[in-house]
């Protein structure tokens, strides 16, 4: 695996550059108190609305706060929101997907409604959510991916032995065992 990763990094320079940029921003966000040149909330009205310069790389805002420092500190909240959304979606989607894959029926049908509900208000024309509500919104949309993986998992566990043994008919013992679980 490490050999194939090294090969990918050497062969695709744009991929390598993108990974390095992302890792640089993540590292900067994690080490924000060390990396940021100024306090992100300290106001200096004498420096308000300054253009980018060697002192303030991204310039300053209406209150004289350094924008570069604010971007680095803001990255911490973006990383937290992204990680929490994936974790919440993973837990909900995996649990519900396994339930829908194992039991089927109404759980299987109801799983198809998770994404449309989430996409209705995130289509750009719907409700603009901020804070925890936006995180739950993202989790609801992402949960569908985990839900589908959870549905496929139990079925694949019984189908794979049947394929290896060449038994794919409707009367195979593996399929009968699968149907008896439902």
Short description:
With 182 residues, the protein is mainly α. It contains 8 helices and no strands.
Oligomeric state of the chains present here = single chain
Number of helices: 8
The residue ranges in which pLDDT falls below 50 over 5 or more consecutive positions are 121-126, 157-163
Helix content class: 55-70%
Radius of gyration: 25 Å
Principal-axis shape: flat
Category from helices, strands and their pairing: mainly alpha
Percentage of residues in strands: under 5%
What's the helix-strand series? HHHHHHHH
- Tell me the total number of β-strands: 0
Give the CA-CA distance, first to last residue: 38 Å
Largest sheet: none
Mean pLDDT: 75
Notes on the structure:
The protein is mostly helical and 182 residues long. It has helices spanning 2-11, 13-30, 32-35, 67-103, 106-111, 114-120, 132-165, 173-181. Helix 2 packs across helix 4, helix 4 (67-103) packs across helix 7 (132-165) and helix 7 runs antiparallel to helix 8.
Structural features:
about 180 residues, 8 helices
Topology:
Layout lengths: L1 H10 L1 H18 L1 H4 L31 H37 L2 H6 L2 H7 L11 H34 L7 H9 L1
Helix pairs in contact: 2-4, 4-7, 6-7, 7-8
């Amino acid at each position: 695996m490490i050999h194939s990763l090294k090969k990918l990094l050497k062969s695709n320079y744009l991929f390598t550059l993108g990974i390095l940029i992302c890792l640089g921003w993540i590292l900067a966000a994690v080490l924000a108190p060390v990396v940021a040149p100024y306090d992100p909330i300290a106001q200096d009205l004498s420096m308000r609305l300054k253009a980018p310069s060697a002192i303030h790389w991204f310039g300053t805002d209406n209150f004289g706060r350094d924008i570069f420092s604010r971007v680095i500190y803001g990255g911490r909240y973006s990383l937290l929101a992204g990680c929490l959304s994936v974790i919440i979606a993973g837990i909900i989607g995996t649990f519900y997907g396994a339930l829908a894959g194992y039991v089927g029926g109404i759980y299987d049908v109801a799983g198809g409604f998770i994404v449309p509900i989430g996409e209705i208000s995130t289509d750009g024309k719907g409700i603009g959510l901020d804070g925890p509500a936006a995180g739950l919104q993202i989790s609801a949309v992402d949960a569908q991916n985990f839900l589908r993986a959870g549905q496929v998992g139990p079925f694949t566990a019984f189908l794979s032995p049947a394929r290896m043994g060449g038994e794919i008919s409707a009367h195979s013992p593996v399929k009968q065992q699968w149907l008896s679980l439902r």
